[in-house]
Structures are given as C-alpha cells and as structure tokens.
Amino acid sequence: MKHFIICLYTLAWLLPAAAFAQTIAADAEIPRYDVEVAIFKNINAPKGREFALPVASPSRGENIFDMASSSSVGKAKKLGYQILPSSELRLLDVVGRLVESPRYELLLHVAWRQPGMDLENAIPVWLRGGRIYGKEYISIDNQIEIMDSVPYVADPGEETSFQFDAQTPEALEEQLQAQRDAISHRGLYELEGKITVSLSRYLHAYVDLVFRSPRLTIDEESTNAAQAEYLAARAADTHILNNHLLKEHRRMRSKNLHYLDSPEFGMLILITPYEAPETPAAAE
Predict the structure, then answer these.
(1) How far apart are CA 117 and CA 19, in angstroms?
(2) Is 255 left (phi over 0), alpha (psi -120 to 50) or beta?
(3) Which of 55, 80, 87, 247 could anchor a disulfide with 243, C-beta 3.0 to 4.6 Å?
(4) 198: pLDDT strictly greater than 90
(5) Residue 192 burial (CB < 10 Å; 0-12/13-18/19+)?
(6) What sign has the CA pseudo-torsion 119, 189, 101, 248?
(7) pLDDT for 42-78, tens place per residue?
(8) Measuring CA to CA, how many Å separate 209 from each of 122, 189, 195?
(9) pLDDT at residue 113 above 80?
(10) What are phi and psi of 257, to 5 degrees?
C-alpha cells in the first residue's frame, strides 16, 4: 500500500512535467518567420480626369495585429507576433536606392516576426503609412455608404437615371455634409490595409491595401486656363480621397524578394525563416 501511494505521488509530479514538455515540443515544431515589407508610391503614376469607380477600404475585423495600437501589440505578442527593431531590417540597401530615386516615395518600411500558421489561424497585420490627410478631406468610403443607403428608383423615361430621396442638389449636399459630420474623423492615412502571411504546404501572402489620393489634384505649375476652369467647377472633388487598390494573393518563396504593384503604388516583401540563437543554457 505504501509503495502504491508513492507511485501515485510520483505520477502526480511527472504528468504536469510531461504535459509541459509536450507543449514545448509542440511550440518548437511551429516554424517562425520574419516578414519585411517596403511600400512606396509611384510619383509618375498616370494622372487624368477619367472617372474612377469607388473602391471601399479594407475591412479590419476583430482579430488583427494593429502595429499602431499598443493593446493590439500586447495581445499579438502572446500569440507569437512581434514588431522587429530597425536593426533587424534586411532591405535597408534596397529601400535606400528607392528613396534616392525621383520616381518613388517611401510610404512604409516595417518588419515583424510571426508563427507559420494556416490561413484560418493566421492573424492579419494592419499597416498605416505615408501622409496623414487633415479633416478637410473625406474618404470615398463615406460616399459609398451614402449611395448604398439611398434607394434607387428607375425612371421610366431614362434607363440610366435614378431618383434620390434628395430632390435638389442643395438637399443632396446637405445630406452628404450631415453624413460627413456624423463620422468620427481622426485623420486618413495615405496608405492603409492589411497583409496576412500563412503557411500550408507553401507560404502565402494575402495583400489588401489601399493608397489614398485626392480625386482631383491641382498642379499650379502645369494648370492652364481650361484645366483651372474644369477644376473650379469640381472643387469639391479635390477633397474626396479615392482608394487605389492593391489586392492580391501570392505564393511566396522564403528568402526570395517579391514585388507586387499597381499603377499608383507597389511593395516589396521578404519572408525569412527565423532560427532562434542557441544559448549555452538552452544547449545544456
């Protein structure tokens, strides 16, 4: 009986230790990666008066790693996500050449470390960069919300015309302004969106970013009389920020530099397997 009790006590001590060792082994099997991105805008992007269809900004969701939020950084760190210091950036030379080029302007250069998880468990990383527009600007998202809420009634006389609940342009402008005032505005970033890096059989990057720029821009040096008249008639549009989308899914090769782009902006992404340095205590 005495030997039986001793065995029970021994098992009681060994089982938690075994479970802890199993947890450590499971964590050791999950690979970790350093993800570095450099995002830049194309200064020589085509500029024209053509009408661009409204594109909504990316949705955030609840489970996200927001690098600009201290609480989000703390929560993500418990799940293995962490921001890397500038001393661990690998693309400094490449980014330096981009900055020196008159064709590009750097919007964001950042890196983070994360576990290699499948898409269902991987956490999107929310990024912001570039210029912060003031309160005089509004996002095209506001216009999309308004248009989605307006009931469309087909006019029998014209196939392509619609009747809104606002009967006059002045009433519609009041409705737009009320919507703008109702939206809490903390400043709009020139670049915003999310990147999700996941691991199944291969590494994958899911990019959903927008680059914001005024719907119409005024270049005083090159604006002639006709252009000035055109812009004056549409002055309100110069305060609306269009979203230029970069949404792509790309299979990644680790240690290879990948390039994704759109006419307005592009990005470099490098994913490198992380190997923790072996300390003497760990080796022992």
Answers:
(1) 22
(2) left
(3) 55
(4) yes
(5) buried
(6) positive
(7) 998 766 555 556 788 999 888 999 998 999 999 999 9
(8) 18, 11, 8
(9) yes
(10) -85, 125
Q: What is the pLDDT of residues 139-170, one digit of tens each?
A: 888 766 544 444 433 333 333 333 344 555 55
Output the pTM of the full model: 0.71
Matching residue, tokens 């024209």 = 48
Cβ atoms of 145 and 201 within 8 Å: the answer is: no
**Pairing outcome for strands 158-162 and 154-155:** antiparallel
Q: Which residue has the tokens 């307005």?
A: 264
Which position has the token pair 């995002």?
39
Residue 68: C-alpha distances to residues 22, 26, 34, 79 (Å): 35, 31, 19, 17
Radius of gyration of the chain from Cα atoms? 26
Domain ranges in the chain are 32-134+187-283, 139-184
pLDDT of residue 240: 86
Beta-strand runs (E) in the chain: 32-42, 65-66, 82-83, 104-115, 125-133, 138-139, 154-155, 158-162, 188-199, 203-214, 240-252, 257-261, 265-274
Place of tokens 């590009």: 104
Residue 150 tokens, joined: 């307006």
3-state secondary structure (DSSP) of residue 259: strand
Write down the residue that tokens 């980014």 correspond to: 95
Give the bridge partners for 105, in sequence order: 41
